[in-house]
From TrEMBL:
SUPFAM superfamilies: P-loop containing nucleoside triphosphate hydrolases. InterPro entries: P-loop_NTPase. It comes from Candidatus Magnetoglobus multicellularis str. Araruama. This is AAA-ATPase-like domain-containing protein.
Length: 104
């Protein structure tokens, strides 16, 4: 094989090698989730089996739970929901965490 054939072979190999691209979003593993940088659940996508959004459920006096894997944006979702409720004088949003509570 001469030098020209070898260079062509190298160029062909370069085309076959997948070039790494930085992901558009990441999975968080600590702290709050930044919705612009991380995978998360967006508030407009949260609905119950009656196709009611979170605000509608609160307005009619229903309670709801969010079940999702850790670091998927549950707390961030509720913080965004609280910001949306701040414009409504009928509600006061209180965020509580029982994460560090001990059982006796």
């Amino acid at each position: 094989m001469d030098v020209g054939e070898f260079q062509n072979q190298i160029e062909n190999e370069k085309e076959r090698i997948m070039i790494y691209q930085t992901p558009k979003r990441i999975f968080e593993n600590t702290g709050y989730v930044n919705p612009e940088q991380s995978y998360c659940v967006f508030i407009e996508n949260v609905r119950n089996h009656h196709n009611q959004d979170m605000k509608t459920m609160v307005d009619i006096g229903r309670y709801f739970s969010i079940f999702a894997p850790r670091q998927s944006g549950k707390t961030t979702l509720f913080k965004i929901f609280a910001q949306n409720l701040e414009t409504d004088s009928n509600y006061i949003f209180i965020l509580m965490s029982f994460e560090n509570c001990e059982t006796y």
